[in-house]
Design a protein that fits this description.
The protein has 504 residues and is of the alpha+beta class. The chain has 3 domains: 2-59, 434 Repressor (Amino-terminal Domain) (Orthogonal Bundle); 68-85 and 303-503, Alpha-beta prism (UDP-n-acetylglucosamine1-carboxyvinyl-transferase, Chain), CATH 3.65.10; 88-299, Enolpyruvate transferase domain (UDP-n-acetylglucosamine1-carboxyvinyl-transferase, Chain). Helix content is 33%, strand content 22%. A hairpin with a 5-residue loop joins strand 4 and strand 5. Helix 10 runs parallel beside helix 11 (261-272) and helix 14 (391-400) runs parallel beside helix 16 (456-468).
Length: 504
């Protein structure tokens, strides 16, 4: 197993160095992304034929791309306070939703991250005017009368799964359009079937062919109540249906809807545009849209609970006293309850409101604590349960705790596999299956050199573990971290971390 893990790591490092996604290399080799992910993680040994095919694909691939790396000097205690930035997932949803508005949308405090940059590139390629203010605190968006979908930046679109949220805004203004296959993090196969099942209520049909989703729209005639039950309580599918419903004056009832933070932010934005929405924060939404939306609006997305959790984890793993300000407590209460059961000591300030006027915020002060393993397995649930994107941080936290903890990621096929990378820094992580790992602590973290896994949260977990590791760690090709975090090295350095950004 150890030898196959080394070979798998070499394959993954070479793939990343040559700028290939897991899907691209798997297609060239003639295997499935899932099988290749298991090889890279060392879960299964590669055959000689697979090794030969991998070498052949890499030999004809372009020169390795220029990449950004982090060099981390570990065992540096953190102190002080750090403010939670606005939500990445809310920002990309609002950027897509700006296509609904014929007036000017101004978004305040949008995180300047790669995921946002990709959506902006797609919007501007279609003729949308997108401009940052001089101090880059505001982002102004004005769509043209006619979008130039033929000019869409395909490369940018393929690098983000958020492009799926163009289905909802476009289906009322276009009879036919195409979207490139969505990319983003490599977390296993994620079907778009829930989107198609829900949006067919607005006349959308999609045929997947030649690297594109080919959409046709045949809107049903006459006003009627649309009653839509989502087959999956997903965030992006709920957002897609909300944006479709916002363009119809008749009533749409969405059942089994996500009530997660980015969905709530989208609801608040749509309401500010004049859309009537009942049931925000519940799993049933009643939406009465507008046949035309033309409003000049200024809106602030709420703070990011996933970033807040990553900062809490930084304090836990480095045994530091740290205050995390502007944390959206409504979306962290289960996580904090689990941490309290594990022995974490922390204080909460009085609550106050986010700039959006709705989201409840607190300041969280975390103290050095002796943690013990969770009694039960740690697993995610739809909001108000433990957030799926916060689950990976519990692998790092469990590695600092006394005892053995099971982490069960039942949502994504590959993310548990990516968390095996923590073993390179000394963690005792055992893969039970593609969805479950056992983590046994406490860990004596040690520095290492490794490539970033192609998934945002596991990659950040490696960075956080490196903060606690003895010696120097190098984390190579950190583009995936920059997709979701703004200026993270400098912000951590201001707390006492020692992270140097380098380039190859």
């Amino acid at each position: 197993m150890h030898q196959s893990g080394n070979v798998g790591g070499l394959i993954r490092d070479a793939r990343s160095l040559h700028g290939l996604s897991l899907e691209e290399l798997a297609a060239g080799v003639g295997t499935s992304p899932q099988h290749l992910a298991e090889i890279e993680a060392g879960a299964v040994p590669p055959s000689l034929d697979t090794l030969r095919d991998v070498a052949g694909v890499l030999q004809v691939t372009q020169e390795p791309k220029r990449q950004t790396n982090y060099r981390i000097e570990g065992e540096a205690p953190l102190s002080g306070s750090i403010e939670v930035r606005s939500s990445k997932n809310a920002a990309v949803a609002l950027l897509c939703a700006s296509l609904l508005n014929r007036g000017r949308t101004v978004l305040r405090g949008v995180a300047q991250i790669e995921e946002v940059n990709r959506i902006i590139e797609v919007l501007t390629s279609m003729g949308v005017s997108v401009e940052w203010s001089e101090d880059r605190s505001e982002l102004s968006i004005v769509r043209p009368d006619q979008l130039d979908l033929e000019a869409m930046d395909e490369e940018a679109a393929r690098r983000t799964r958020s492009v799926l949220m163009f289905f909802g805004p476009l289906l009322s203004s276009h009879d036919a359009f195409s979207l490139p296959y969505a990319g983003g993090c490599n977390l296993g196969a994620r079907t778009i079937e829930p989107h198609l099942q829900a949006l067919k209520n607005f006349g959308l049909t999609v045929r997947a062919t030649e690297g594109f989703y080919r959409a046709q729209v045949h809107p049903p005639t006459g006003e009627r109540v649309r009653s839509i039950t989502l087959t999956e309580r997903g965030d992006t599918v709920t957002e897609n249906v909300l944006m479709a419903a916002a363009q119809h004056a008749d009533l749409t009832v969405i059942r089994n809807a996500s009530s997660n933070y980015m969905v709530q932010d989208l609801c608040f934005y749509l309401m500010a545009l004049g859309v009537e929405i009942e049931g925000i924060g519940t799993t049933t939404l009643r939406v009465r849209g507008l046949s035309e939306i033309d409003t000049d609006i200024t809106f602030s997305p709420s703070e990011d609970p996933i970033e807040a959790m990553s900062l809490i984890t930084a304090a836990v793993v480095t045994h530091s006293e740290l205050t995390i300000t502007r944390a959206p407590i409504e979306f962290l209460e289960i996580e904090l309850a689990v941490l309290a059961e594990m022995g974490l000591r922390y204080d909460l300030s009085d609550e106050y409101l986010s700039y959006n006027g709705h989201t409840r915020l607190v300041d969280i002060t975390v103290y050095p604590s002796h943690l013990r393993a969770a009694v039960d397995k740690i697993h995610p649930m739809p909001f108000p349960g433990l957030n799926i994107d916060n689950l990976p941080f519990f692998a790092v936290i469990a590695a600092t705790a006394e005892g053995s903890t099971m982490i069960h990621d039942w949502v994504y096929e590959n993310r548990a596999i990516h968390l095996l990378e923590l073993s390179k820094l000394g963690a005792n992580v055992q893969l039970l299956d593609p969805h479950r790992i056992h983590v046994t602590g406490p860990t004596k973290w040690r520095g290492t050199e490794t490539m970033c896994p192609p998934a945002l949260r596991p990659a950040v977990c490696l960075l956080l573990a490196a903060l606690a590791a003895k010696g120097t760690s190098t984390l190579r090709d950190v583009y995936v971290i920059n997709r979701g975090y703004e200026d993270l090295p400098n912000r951590l350095n201001a707390l006492g971390a020692k992270i140097v950004v380098t380039h190859d």
